[in-house]
Write a structure and sequence with these properties.
Blueprint lengths: L6 H11 L7 H20 L4 H10 L8 E2 L6 E2 L1 H13 L15 H12 L6 H22 L2 H4 L4 H17 L4 H12 L13 H21 L15 H5 L6 H4 L23 H14 L6 E8 L1 H7 L7 H4 L3 H11 L9 H4 L2 H7 L2 E5 L8 E7 L4 E6 L12 H16 L1 H12 L8 H5 L5
Parallel strand pairs: 3-4
Antiparallel strand pairs: 1-2, 3-5, 5-6
Helix pairs in contact: 1-9, 2-4, 2-6, 2-19, 3-4, 4-5, 4-10, 5-6, 5-8, 5-10, 6-8, 8-9, 8-10, 9-10, 13-16, 16-18, 19-20
Protein name: MmgE/PrpD family protein
GO molecular function, one term: lyase activity
Pfam family, one: MmgE_PrpD_N
Amino acid sequence: MTQRTDVTRALAEWIVGCDLNDIPEATQKEGVRTFVNWLGCAVGGAMHETVDRALAGVSPFSGDPTSTVLGRSERLDALHAALLNGISSHVLDYDDTHLKTIIHPAGPVASALLAVAERQPVTGKQLLNALIVGIEVECRIGNAVYPHHYDRGWHITGTTGVMGAAAAVGRLLELNEQQMTWALGIAATQSSGLREMFGTMTKSFHPGRAAQNGALAAYLAKADYDSSEKAIEAPRGFANVMSEKQDYDEILGGLGENWEAALNSYKPFACGIVIHPTIDGCIQLSEELGDDVQNIERVDLVTHPLVLELTGKPEPKTGLEGKFSVFHSAATALLRRDGTPTAFTDEAVNAPELIDMRRRVKVETDPNCHEAAVSIKATLRDGRVISKQVERAIGSFEKPLTNDQLDTKFVDQAALVIGKAQAEELLKEAWGFADLTDVSTLARATVPR
């Protein structure tokens, strides 16, 4: 590991100089997939009560209503729209994941970008460039401090996402190297988000606030509002204060050559990523058992310890808590073959048959079990035992969702908010956003007719 004292400035220099032509075609294609997935999630979560309450809380303080609250008729100023859209894109826990760090990259970055794009002219190519740059920044910073930073209790999507959003919006504002260095510093000092909030409305506040604060950092830097020029690497800077690990080679090594943004993955299930193998395996088990799934006496899971640490809520009371219950997730996968947003509603977690089944689920942890694997053993009342082993779940980097599967995911969730016909039209526009001369039309196309 190389010790450096110019990490923040070197990163800023790269951000300012990285044009779309410098980004490999494969990474650009993944950037489009990332945007499509994010937009579907933002619209899909738009009518959640979390968004209703956030909107009620901040609307009185909004300025000039330049920007769309995606999937709704309300408009806010760009910074508050970034906040709301970051919340809606994450509230279902259905958004993208950089599996190396468990960062949800698009929420902070894309939410800020599209809100700003309604305030000034932005082409699709400019948006794609800024999106990829912002994601690259947050994921590389995440790599430098993960897992110690996460293990301390920081929600890494919020803490690194604010710097990704600052970098991305800074690209749209055409910040120079000095201003971009300041923008990263202003963002870093606002870095926050606690894992204690998982299972509550405030979890989705983290990417929303990161989007809002990152955009604010870029606007302040544009006005020559200064900050420390060593905000990431200084002894009292982000990495040293918030982590026991500081590997700056993860930030600057291979920058512009190896792309973290190309490693993004997309969830088939609307919950914590560590439960996905359990849901995948339990759905397979349910399909194999057919009606006999009703005769399950006991389900034994063997998982990595992180699964219980993150999703060990045995008796969730709300849909949001259900997203962090491996017990509920196994039950709804077995009885309803469902891991989509409908599996994580207040109705679902309080359904008597699901409560009964989740109480039959027992979890044993094994540190030698991979975080992305699970062993499942179902014992039936007649004594039969059916086993299932999942090494990597659907939606993992090894088994990524296809474009067709992304289409289905997009329409299924967005249709609940804006109707199927409008969702299909929006999906088509989203896939072609890089060719738009004005991406603000895409935000307005999310407003329910």
